[in-house]
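User: Thanks for the earlier help. One more: DNA 3'-5' helicase. Can you show the sequence and predicted structure together?

Assistant: Of course, both are below.
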Amino acid sequence: MTSPADTPVRIAAEQRASRAPGTAGVPGADAGARAGADYRLTAPSARYRTGKFSPSSEQRQVIENQVRRVRVLAGPGTGKTATLVEAAVERITVRGVDPASILVLTFSRRAAKELSERLSSRLDLTLGEPMVRTLHSYAYSLLKADAARSGLPAPRMLGAAEADRMVADLLDGQLLDGAAQWPGSIRPALGSAAFASEVRDLVLRTGERALSPARIAAIGRARRRPEWVAAAGLAREYQQVLDLRMGTTGLGTALDQAELTVAALEVLGRDDVLAAEQTRVRRVFVDEYQDVDPGQAALIERVAAGADELVVVGDPDQAIYSFRGSEPAALRDVEVDRTVVLKTSHRSGAALLAATRRIATALPGPPRHRQLTAAVDPPPTVGAGEERAAVEIRTLPTAARQAAYVADRLRRAHLQDGIAWASMAVILRSPAASMPPLTRAFAAAGVPLVARGTGVPLDDPLAADLVTLLGTGPDRTTIDAEVVARLLGSAVLGPDTLDALAVRRLRGVARRVMSEHRGAGSAGGTGAVIAELVRALAGVVRDQEDSDPAADRVAAARAVLAAVPDPIAAAVRRLVRLIRTADAVADERDAEVALWQLWTTSGLEKDLLATVGRGGRAAARADASLDAVVSLFEDAADLAARLPGAGVTAFVEQARARRVPDEQTASGAAAHEAVSVLSAHGAKGLEWDLVCVVDVQDGRWPDLRTSAGLLRVDELLDLAAGVDPAVSRSAERLADERRLFYVACTRARRQLLVTAVDGDDSVPSRFLGELAGPEPVAAGWPGGVSPRRALHLVDLVGELRRVVCDEGTEPETALEAARQLARLAAAGVPGAHPDQWWGLAGPTTEEDAVPPGAPVRISPSAVESLQTCELRGVLERRGARGPMGDAQTLGVAVHAAVSGLARGVPRDVVVAEIDAHLAGQERLPDWQIRRLRRAIVSMTDAADRWLQVIGAGGWATIGSELAVDLPLASIDGHPIHLTGRVDLLSQTPEGTTVVTDFKTGSAKVTRAQAAEHLQLAAYQLAVAAGAVVSGRTVLPDGVVEPASAERPRVTVSGGAQLVYLRTGEAKVLTQEALDDDRARDVAEQAVVGAAALISSAVRASENPACERCPVRTCCPLQTEGRQVTR
């Protein structure tokens, strides 16, 4: 065999598929470094072949380069990756360069994978060491080799989540010690996640620049910045903890990505190591050079200083990682012998290039690499008879309209233009702010989406609740009222999930039953009782649990389950099984095993997969939950590899501390047949046929706000670099934002849509005008139609049915619509056949709604609502109210609070009950809870002041929340009862009895309307007839105070009053006592209302409340409800 210098060789290997020891968690894992390889040498063909690749003249200059150092300026789509691949192939196959002496560096794992795959397909080549590496992977390989030479364990990568957790722990420790080293203005922030993240950023960015803690402290003292001195101390402590971990775990040094480069430079600082590396690496190719930071540039320069060839490729206009320390000027400053400019775009056509060039022209730097020409101008896209513009720029009046238009545009591109879902993308500057309306619009339009790299696993509620459950095993104190209430309403219970009303009902029953089993007294706070119930059933006892024997607690808990409906009991039992599993695996040393046991117990996999298969919004949520759970398992496996034996507690802490997605989560997700939704940074290096750049708003893009934070890291770095921090950076920030917008727009191959909201509070970005150039920016939906009919079978059927049923339709048009409906009906499309049209179907039944002879109970409020509109009153009685909203939550709490005040309960106790009630409202965010609390307390105080005023005037409380039951006439054998609950019954100094009804809504009646108020009159009727049967109070958690043994004594009626509390001051409207005629009239109206509840036919009445009616879709008088009878 001749020398490699004389004859080129191809090295092939049959290798094991397992990962080499020590490579777990390493960025750009060394795919070729595997054990057990059997090598053979073969002679390749002697001539370089381009295959299907046809290089341009500029690309051929790079491929056949003969000078030592070359800079390649390559704009978007100019084929820089293909050029790099072909250059490496040419060196091996034509010049006979040893493949092991070639090093190809790139910025991201995704790019490294693509380069490796292309080289493998061109060379059929497998090496003992990978030819292509990320910059971090190459730095790691140097450290790993150095550790092996020294007989030390290989270093390991420190994940972002683990590093964040370490910083937070260190800050917590300093807080416990008093945190005297931190200035008083910053001390209150030390415990926050945001400040921990800021400290972590300081450690990372100073590490990138080899800025030691001593140097940071010196700058802090010189500039009188004690927070920098304190941060330097924490950075030193952080490194000490890493060193201690290495010594106690037997693992290698833990390094984050910033420290990798610094440590690698230190290794190469030894002459023998540098000489060996320069002897091994003879040719260096660097992709995306514009994204390197100063440390990485120094590393490349040190290795390439003795190399035969250095080729750096990049585009200064795509330098978008300055926040990570990269320098846009790096590509300009590198020393080269020659510069080659790639000018032919193989991605975009002329129209797209002209538009994006207008953005690039506004960027600093020479323009020679921006004069791109299209290799082949693609033919215009034509769909449904209309030609699509390559570039469309449009503003919409609201965020919802914008989202709906984007969804419609994507659906039409898929159905009419034949573009695959996976060939479309939506790019956002701020996914967290822009995603909610897009998610809703895409679900409504039937557009599948996958959000890439926009979050962490615990952003998904199901994944978060799994981690919460897992954490209950090692830490039983977490099984408290808040956690149990949340888990009972969580998707982790699958189909057994409870709503807020069911949880409230469980609380009430549990408190009553468990109190009875104790003999007397409370079973704990209003929320704690269900936590006690679950702990007892699970056999898990907290350290502070009371002294009740375990058997008694279990017996009481079982009695609760026997007293609640089966669905509630099933949910509790399922939660108990999960908590028992978490308790059983609490001591498991492998968190992945523990998580698997919990996941298996949950039985959710089958349910979620079935939901995904059904499609729709629920499918998208289920798919996202499955992705999050898979990510949890990956994190658990990674933790086990990094810290063997770390166990469940460490995993739970890591999962909760993780705030940013690691790179593999952001870019390594499995491909979906769906539209990609991602950030502009995440889109770098990718391309799609249709790209929508959405929400390009002034203030958001460009985002020129400074992110100085409490530590002002940028100012520290400027001072360390000798730059005056007083110099404005506005121009730099604007250039960064413009480069990011340029990257987003240049991802498109065929079509580009850019949208913004132009409304009262939103202004489009200046970038829209730059992109549009002399052309005006379109506003609204095309043709002024807003919106167009969506391309759905459901919408098509609806439109055809409207045409057929509209009396004003031309006969020929109606006939054609009927023919199309017949075709759809024959194909089985739901809703197309007239048999499925509600208005043409006969009544389901004509029997009365109430069984024969059954009593009918009607409340005073129902008497009033049925008088206004029978249809609404009956449907609401049958459950058409929907879930409890804020108004209902507020009303329940205020009425319970006022009842307590009327019975003499102290205000502080009442407010404590309000807080307990609101703590159980898991469906509401914290800000809404705070707003509700302010409103409830304000109205409670208003009622308290009013009660004190009437009490001082000689009024006495007879009772609050008094039940009334007044028998009325019978209808066809149905006894009619007027039943309800009087908010407050009082006796005046004159001895008369007054009914009070408290109102918490904002709508008020007039004095004249109050005088005739039917609900108030019905209460008067019942009280005057002596129909008060009991006095009891319903507390906020649903617990019923025992009824009084005696009926309250009622004297002569003194009338009634409405008391409005909404404004924070009691406003009173009165009603005179009923005379006999008025009393008979009210009783008759109650009977008429009861007849409507019985009958199978009810009357719909148009009235001023129709606009707010919750049953409009079932009302034939309303446009949206005409399908009931037409």
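User: Great, one quick takeaway?

Assistant: Residues 926-952 form the longest helix (27 residues).
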